[in-house]
Write a structure and sequence with these properties.
Number of helices: 3
CATH topology: Butyryl-CoA Dehydrogenase, subunit A, domain 3
CATH superfamily: Butyryl-CoA Dehydrogenase, subunit A, domain 3
Number of domains: 1
Order of helices and strands: HHH
Number of strands: 0
Strand content: under 5%
Structural class: mainly alpha
């Protein structure tokens, strides 16, 4: 894509969905690791506790909100079918 070209709505929506999905997969993976680490994961000194907190906080950011990105992408795909 040339510098003067701007990505269209379809491209922007797809990229937003992919970023949100990647963040959601990371959130789920860290959640599983955290759950499997038993009580040791909640210690303040645990790197897993920090990762759990950081990934969950990042996944809550509005720009990569999983539900809204999924809804926007689904609407776009449904419009393509018409």
């Amino acid at each position: 894509m040339a510098a003067e070209e701007h990505p269209g709505l379809e491209h922007r929506t797809r990229v937003k969905w992919q970023a949100a999905y990647a963040a959601e997969l990371c959130r789920r993976a860290v959640g599983r690791l955290f759950a499997g680490a038993s009580a040791h994961a909640v210690d303040q000194s645990s790197p897993l506790q920090a990762a759990f907190r950081n990934v969950n906080a990042g996944a809550q950011h509005a720009s990569i909100d999983f539900d809204s990105a999924a809804e926007q992408f689904a609407r776009l795909r449904l419009e393509e079918k018409d």
